[in-house]
Design a protein that fits this description.
Largest sheet: 10 strands, mixed
Structural class: alpha/beta
Distance between the termini: 30 Å
Number of helices: 8
Order of helices and strands: HHEEEEEEEEEEEEHEHEHEEHEEEEHEH
Helix content: 10-25%
Strand content: 15-25%
Length: 480
Amino acid sequence: MRSKSIQLWVSLPVLAAVLLGTTWAAHAASRQSLPEATTSYTFAPVADAYVIQSYPAANYGSATVLRADNVPVTRSYLRFNVSGLKGAAIQSARLRFHAESSNTTGMSVRALSNNAWTEAGITYNNSPAAGSVISSVQSVVSGAWISLNVSSYVKSQGTFNFVVTTSSSTNIKLSSRHVTDGSAPRLVVTVTTPSTATPTPPGGSTDWQPSFPIRAAFYYPWFPEAWTQKGIYPYTNYTPKLGFYSNRDAAILHQHIAMMQYGGIQAGIASWWGQGSQEDGKIAALLNAASGTHFRWALYYEPESLGDPSAGQIQGDLTYIKSRYGKAPGFLRINGKFVVFVYSDGKDGCGMADRWKQGNTVGAYVVLKVFNGYLNCASQPDSWHQYSPAVAADQQGKFSYSISPGFWLKGDTVRLARNATRWTQNVKDMVASGANWQLVTTFSEWGEGTAVEPAAQWSSVSGYGQYLDALHTNGKMPAP
């Protein structure tokens, strides 16, 4: 549970402004330069196979593994079709493999201009010669992901062929496209969207909405102010990959959305402390950043945790949210109803459910925080959730399933130690639960140390970090 001191702090914009003046100016210059907007596309191979010198006429196009060896010479061939980028410029391209064996020499990926080979027909005898090396890794670890930078080769839409080779006499095995456990090769292409473009959501719909089950993450737009708390800067035990950023920076918001989408997160639940609060002033930018994507935003109504707002206040706040944000294309809606999660304190009970039923006269989809006996209340909201980040996993029937990577409040002892293996299992269990709301607690609560946003302490070869990697694969293999 978030500390009351933090809750009170973030509701005081005047204090935040003072802190901003003393801390942000000193550190803004150190933040990395980011593209105006980025989106990542993941492409699966349309063909892959390996060939082996000792069986020169054999075809291995249906094998579940790809191989590379130098004795006997063994090479793997892959083809990808890159399309649907809508004219956006490619910023980077990474070719990813899941290793099924270890090798201390490593492997290389080479270019191939020949597009005539076929998965069912290629053999060692008719295999085209590999071109120049694009990228290499110095070692391969079984069970881990390998990421190779192929940006110099993949510069536009089109068809791209690759050859995997090694100078080692120890056979390297990689998952092929024919596996069913989520470990198939993938080409991840990140594009930069020009600011002058008018984005259109994939598929052309201007009001696309996800359907249940929905994976959503709690998100905190209170930075840079919250990097300084209790006279401590930075107020976190970790080092975010993007630095000590500002949620006012549009490029940061685009990066965050791309990161969450990589983790299969379809919606962010943004902390909201009331009309005119500093968080309220950042919601429009979040919605703008989601424009042209299949990512949506809901709000996390925090004032309930500071007292018992009346039905009239609830009605006024919901009316404000609906008129100001609820109809925006980037806002999350269920059957046309704008979604509002509600955080509460430990003293709340059925009276809270009664007040929210009375106050919700504007058609909000309300997800209340659970309390003892919540199912017995006469007033029932649209759904229920738990927010308990010091607990690794929590299920509330088919309503929701929540998972947390860890909890370490700055200046306090660890309440939930981080463990990537446990997290990977929690992700798998969450997916298997089939719960309507599959909740990540949290994407960016850095003060409490519950973030899954990329950080130096849990970096991975993908660049997204171990926790988002596990979400990306639905927990189907160990986090790299």
